[in-house]
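Project standup — Tuesday

K.O.: blocked on the structure for the chain from last sprint. Re-posting the sequence here as requested.
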Amino acid sequence: MKKQRTAPRIIGPDGRERPASQEARINEWFAHTFRGVAAEHVMDYLKSITINAVAGPEQSDSALRHLEGSRFIVGIIDTRIKLGVKQIARMDKEKVEKDG
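H.V.: unblocked you, prediction finished:
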């Protein structure tokens, strides 16, 4: 009896396992959504209130947990944007090579 082939699955930046094709689609959506000057300003703002924020010793445990969760989400967004941009560039390069 033959084993049924399944699409390769990978763990994405959000820690979830998905087929590679679905991961690629999600990354492309982020790259397309967060492009342009306005998107860069939005990401800079989100990073300023999460990733670049410093929590002092007066922060409560729940405030720190909230900040870390926020940092995680902004980190996922940033990672998916970067992966999507790379994927789109790779696809464009492959298309040029194929057509050229």
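K.O.: great, moving the ticket to review. The beta strands are 9-11, 17-19. The chain has a mean pLDDT of 93.
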